[in-house]
């Protein structure tokens, strides 16, 4: 089961629990109204068989309607989930049929092109200076309209997962749509661009996020991390065991100043995202987001910088990673 399927099941379970809670609350409210009516109602009415039958029907019928509505909502949710699964299966089948028979290999790094020697340019004939154009006052209405643009809405957990995982290709239209939604928000756009820079620079040194094996992590640890706990308290999140990836990332942070700045920028923005989403989502959503390509890069860099406990030692000489306070 993929991380996206796990996320969808988590969202569906939360929706079912919410519907059940609504049904229980509505039933309790109706029963309280019935008890209140029976307590405050007149006592001199005849209690024959017909009146008791009407009374029982009046009590049970609304309860039956409430739970019929809840059952219908559950059935509709199940049908929608089955339709989503069917669409995903059909998309995978189309992708398999459209894929070439041979396995695509990673392209070798293309060497940088050497610029040709600049040739002397032919002198241009002198032109008469053009008469100055009259200055036109700038129209500031467009600037005011741009400042008054509404803020982008928060992404759903599924949209956020697809945006942080990046599209697999031009055919991955759903991921491209989610990525565009994320880029519409200035804060998310900074995080997405920083994540793309980190993933690209790591891939240039042979550290590919698709090759990192990230097991399922404890959602409670991500809740602690979102609350601000660091070090040994969240050491269970340091799940990257690929020594080559750890060595490559630590070496880049130690020796490449540009990558170090980009990595710290990415760590700060991803940390802010986790803190913000922890206020609106279940901790299980945070654990699933960690399985995206951006989440894997975050765990890798947080692990080699000591945010998730003691940083691994890389060779001799100076420390390979900056202290934890400098990273976040």
Strands, helices and their partners?
Blueprint (H helix, E strand, L loop, with lengths): L2 H38 L8 H50 L42 H7 L9 H9 L7 H11 L2 H19 L14 H9 L15 H13 L1 H22 L4 H7 L3 H12 L19 H4 L1
Helix pairs in contact: 1-2, 1-4, 1-10, 4-5, 6-9, 7-9, 7-10, 8-9, 8-11, 9-11
Keywords: Membrane, Transmembrane, Transmembrane helix
General description of the model:
It is a single chain. This protein is mostly helical and 328 residues long. It folds into two domains: 73 residues; 173 residues, no CATH class. The chain contains twelve helices and no strands. The longest helix is centred in the first third of the chain and has 50 residues. It is elongated, with a radius of gyration of 30 Å. The C terminus is likely disordered.
List keywords for this structure.
disordered C terminus; mainly alpha; 328 residues; 12 helices; transmembrane helix; membrane
Task: Tell me briefly what this model is.
This protein has 328 residues and is mostly helical.
The helix fraction, in percent, is 55-70%
Largest sheet: none
Q: Give the CA-based shape.
A: elongated
The fraction of residues assigned to DSSP E strands is under 5%
**Estimated structural class:** mainly alpha
Helix count equals: 12
The H/E string reads HHHHHHHHHHHH
Number of strands: 0
Keywords: Membrane, Transmembrane, Transmembrane helix
Transmembrane segments: 21-40, 52-71
């Amino acid at each position: 089961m993929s991380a996206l399927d796990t996320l969808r099941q988590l969202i569906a379970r939360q929706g079912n629990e919410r519907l059940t809670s609504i049904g229980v609350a509505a039933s309790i409210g109706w029963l309280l109204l019935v008890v209140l009516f029976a307590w405050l109602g007149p006592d001199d009415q005849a209690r024959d068989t017909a009146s008791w039958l009407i009374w029982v029907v009046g009590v049970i019928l609304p309860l039956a309607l409430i739970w019929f509505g809840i059952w219908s909502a559950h059935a509709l949710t199940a049908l929608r989930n089955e339709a989503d699964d069917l669409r995903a299966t059909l998309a995978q089948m189309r992708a398999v049929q459209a894929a070439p028979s041979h396995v695509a290999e990673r392209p070798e790094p293309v060497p940088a092109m050497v610029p040709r020697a600049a040739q002397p340019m032919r002198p241009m004939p002198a032109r008469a200076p053009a008469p100055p154009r009259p200055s036109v006052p700038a129209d500031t209405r467009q600037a005011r309209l741009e400042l008054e643009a509404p803020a982008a809405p928060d992404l759903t957990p599924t949209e956020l997962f697809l945006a942080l995982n990046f599209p697999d290709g031009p055919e991955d239209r759903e991921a491209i749509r989610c990525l565009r939604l994320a880029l519409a928000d200035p804060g998310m756009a900074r995080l997405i661009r920083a994540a793309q820079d980190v993933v690209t620079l790591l891939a240039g040194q042979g550290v590919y996020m698709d090759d990192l094996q990230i097991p399922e992590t404890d959602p409670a640890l991500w809740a602690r991390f979102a609350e601000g706990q660091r070090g040994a308290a969240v050491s269970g999140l340091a799940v990257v065991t690929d020594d080559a990836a750890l060595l490559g990332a630590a070496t880049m942070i130690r020796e490449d100043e540009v990558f170090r700045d980009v990595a710290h920028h990415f760590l700060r923005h991803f940390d802010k995202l986790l803190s913000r989403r922890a206020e609106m989502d279940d901790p299980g959503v945070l654990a699933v987001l960690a399985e995206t390509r951006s989440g894997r890069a975050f765990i890798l860099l947080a692990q080699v910088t000591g945010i998730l406990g003691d940083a691994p030692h890389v060779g001799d000489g100076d420390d390979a990673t900056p202290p934890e306070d400098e990273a976040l």
